[in-house]
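User: I'm new to structure prediction. If I give you an amino acid sequence, what do you actually give back? Let's try with this one:
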Amino acid sequence: MFIQIQNLPVGTTVEEIFELLSGLTMVDHITIADSDIPEHVVAWICIGCSQTGANAIASKLDGRMFNGRHVSSYASLFLH
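Assistant: Good question. You get back a string of structure tokens that encode the predicted 3D arrangement of the chain. For your 80 residues, that looks like this:
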């Protein structure tokens, strides 16, 4: 499953995303689409769990404050 996190600060690192996920061991990999525009900085997290599990994780992350920005998150039904 894939979870997308949007509205990340410019320069966000993979390590910071791992910290945001609070050490979930089911993370396979993280890809960050960086941009000079904060609203366009997006992380895709490939996570080994069910759609229900991905939805629950995305719900916990959605609206959370991360490095001075409120991020939005959702579990994708399709690959990015």
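You can read the tokens as a compact description of the fold. Here is one thing that stands out. The radius of gyration is 11 Å.
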